[in-house]
Design a protein that fits this description.
The protein is an alpha/beta fold and 404 residues long. 43% of the residues lie in helices and 15% in strands. Keywords: NAD, Oxidoreductase.
Length: 404
């Protein structure tokens, strides 16, 4: 894969004009009250765009559009062959626009352009293709009954699906949720994070170009307490699928119960552990996997290996190798194809980020590869610490690059 060079991506970034309006019923439009919010380029720490701020009135329009097209059957009753063809065309367009989409992801999140181009965009397109291929391979069932009875199990679309996605993998997670929803014939409303809404808004235009009927896919950019809660409480939304914090997930469950008892799918992440035993057949491979499992995407991954448990007899050698491997993950300009570690997508301030680790580091008997930032940019370097208590504040609160 040709990742080009830094000047190439800088020139493309300078000429980029991202879509910033809501997408409702097949059209881009301003918010009902014309309000907007700023998105920040994490690397430059400057305003990237002013994006439409969707609220309850905009959610209402989107739900009405999604419900109307569902009831008409333009998509929900379309043949499997047609839905399959449209979704394949959708994936084709994503691949054709991979540089534009990758650039939007990198500018919006601070992740390296190399990773956006190699992983996020191809992965998102593959997800759409996978579900497109599954459309004509999902069958009903005939249940065993008495001689004079017939019981059939038929799988049908449920209605309007709301998909709420986080800021760390905006496009990839959007397609993981939209793929099955659209393949089944549902209408969907996508609510991207206010930190990274740009690729989702562009995605909607590609879906329309692919032939998705108006109203089947709507995108509402905005904040959780406004657009997100309006979706979770809306009586005409049958399903809400969410990836993000445990606190928000609990609130969505409550909102579902307080409204129409909509179905809820949650993925709230966690503190994952890598475990390495002395009989590991390839120690260096385990070291490399451990480093990639925590430093990839600046550690901002729901399943990042934030804890490392190593058998004592190999601990010293393993940590020495890991320290060497960690030194290779140096943060840099996300638009440079040689960069493997970009910027933190969200952090209060560089000072606050550093302060989170310094007290823990002072207490730790053994530490390596310091945590620090560079100027105003949230470029946290890899940080390893050993012999930390089971429940330190850093271990529970930090987003990345931490073992205990």
């Amino acid at each position: 894969m040709d990742f080009q060079h830094l000047n190439y991506w800088q020139e493309k970034a300078n000429s980029l004009q991202p879509e910033t309006r809501l997408f409702i019923n097949g059209e881009y439009c301003a918010a009902a009250d014309n309000s907007t919010f700023e998105t920040i380029d994490p690397a430059a720490q400057q305003t990237l765009a002013h994006v439409a701020r969707g609220k309850k009135a905009d959610v209402e329009r989107a739900v009405q559009a999604a419900r109307s097209v569902f009831d008409r059957g333009d998509w929900s009753q379309a043949s499997p062959a047609r839905r399959k063809a449209v979704l394949h065309k959708f994936a084709d367009l994503m691949e054709a626009h991979r540089e534009e989409l990758a650039l939007l992801e990198t500018l919006d999140t601070g992740k390296p352009i190399r990773h956006s181009l190699r992983d996020d965009i191809p992965g998102a397109a593959r997800a759409i293709r996978w579900y497109a291929e599954a459309i004509d391979k999902v069958y009903g069932e005939v249940a065993p009954t008495g001689v004079n009875e017939l019981a059939m199990i038929v799988r049908e679309p449920i209605g309007v699906v709301a998909a709420v996605v986080p800021w760390n993998f905006p496009l990839l997670l959007a397609c993981w949720k939209l793929g099955p929803a659209l393949a089944a014939g549902n209408s969907a409303i996508l609510k991207p994070s206010e930190k990274s809404p740009l690729s989702a808004l562009r995605l909607a235009g590609l879906a329309k170009e692919a032939g998705l009927p108006d109203g089947v896919l709507n995108v509402i950019s905005g904040f959780g307490h406004e657009a997100g809660q309006a979706l979770s409480l809306h009586p005409d939304v049958e399903v809400i699928t969410f990836t993000g914090s445990t606190r928000t997930g609990k609130q969505l469950l409550k909102d579902a119960g307080d409204s129409n008892m909509k179905r809820v799918w949650l993925e709230a992440g966690g503190k994952s552990a890598n475990i390495v035993f002395a009989d590991c057949p390839d120690l260096q491979k385990a070291v490399n996997a451990t480093a990639g499992g925590i430093f990839y995407n600046q550690g901002q991954v729901c399943i990042a290996g934030t804890r490392l448990l190593v058998e004592e007899s190999i601990a010293d050698e393993f940590l020495a190798r890991l320290q060497e491997q960690a030194s290779l993950w140096q943060p840099g300009n996300p638009l440079d194809p040689n960069t493997t570690m970009g910027c933190l997508s969200i952090t209060p301030t560089p000072i606050a980020f550093t302060a989170l680790f310094v007290p823990q580091r002072a207490k730790a008997p053994c530490c390596s590869t310091g945590a620090k930032t560079r100027g105003r940019r949230p470029l946290g370097q890899p940080f390893l610490s050993t012999s930390i208590p089971p429940r330190p504040s850093a271990g529970k609160r930090s987003s990345a690059r931490y073992w205990w």
